[in-house]
Amino acid sequence: MLFEEAGSTGKPGEPIDDTYYKVLGVDVKATRNQIKKAYNALVIKNHPDKGGDREEFEKVREAWAILGDEEKRAAYDIYGKGGASQVSKKRSKPPPVTITIDLTLSDVCRGPERSLEFYYSTNACSTCGGRGTVDTQVQIGPMVGIAQQACGTCDGKGYSDSKMVKMTKKVRIPKGIASGQKIRLSGEGHQLGLDDRGDVEIICRVARDPMFERRGADLAIKKQLSLKDALCGFAFKIKHPSGTMLTVRSKAGEMVNTGMFKKLTGWGLPQKGAYDVTGNLFMSFDVLLPVPGSITPEKSQSLAKILETLTYPKEKEHKILTFGKGARVKLNVEHEEMNGRLATILADERSPEGFWPIQFDDDSGQAFAIPESYLELVKIESVEIKSSIKDEDDADKEDVTLEDVKGGMPQFTPGDADEGREE
């Protein structure tokens, strides 16, 4: 500030600080037009280019900045210079201009520049550009100087009637941008009254790609291979979202199976905010078997001779673990003598309190009722089923043939005949 704090006038109805009024030489009850005329005259008189005092010139401009603004003048009259400065700090922004742009994965990779058109509302004076003052030429002897005067179009307020203005702006899309993320252009939005100028908010909408699935900075793709390619090696081309054509080849002797995953390191998407970090491209495979009827008996015999010479992994034994009669469990309890002991469940269902009746597998033959939370399933081995299994030579035998499942998805049979019936 160029002024020292002034004391209160102490008179009811008058400003507590009249310093700015004295600088402009006007009464505290002067109209805005009177203040404006005094300001214009003093600006010309004290302009440094005309030999005026620069300090006085700055005082005049500071006084006009407060008294020429109705909101600031009202705050100044009540609270003094501190109140007027708070008005400036409390200026709000209008809501942002919102634009939605559609992007592709290619845009996410490349970070292109887009030309956007939008409209914003403004009531800033077209003459002074919202400043409230204009530069005017002043004759200073044989020379011409420049002085600032209150704008006559808006009466020094800086704003007039509202209108819509079309704006074209070039915007750089950040690499790695995700759908729903926003780009903000500060100070490019609505310009209304005494508010600070608003922003422009660009909402990015990234379209789903028909080939690639995006997960963060990684990409995933599912590739179908013929049985020949899966067993004997493959080579295929993929056009990456960056525009690069990738040729993907299997390693010598490599075989793939349905559901197997492979990775191409560094062929994902750029990580937003860290362009030196790039995700990976994950690829899962779906092996296509020959269509029914395409393998003749002769071909089948030839294939069998080749396939039976290959080495296969050991078939895994799949068992369903569940609590019930005959299930073997291990105790997980804090008691040292009981913890880790193996036992067999003696009932099909637990008690209403959640306890299972068990009997230890050792020679002790001890039986207890233990909460399910303290039991860990080891394996299923039903006593009834085990005792009923016959030797292979004595077992019933029957040749069975698999049938096609209509529609590709099984329709499961209800476990209860009454299931699904209306009461």
TrEMBL record:
Alphabetical UniProt keywords: Metal-binding, Repeat, Zinc, Zinc-finger
GO molecular function, one term: zinc ion binding
Pfam families, A to Z: DnaJ, DnaJ_C
Family matches, as InterPro entries: DnaJ_C, DnaJ_domain, DnaJ_domain_CS, DNJA1/2-like, HSP40/DnaJ_pept-bd, HSP_DnaJ_Cys-rich_dom, HSP_DnaJ_Cys-rich_dom_sf, J_dom_sf
Domain of life per record: Eukaryota
Positions of region (Disordered): 388-423
GO biological process, one term: protein folding
PANTHER family given in the database record: DNAJ-LIKE-2, ISOFORM A-RELATED (PTHR43888)
Protein known as: J domain-containing protein
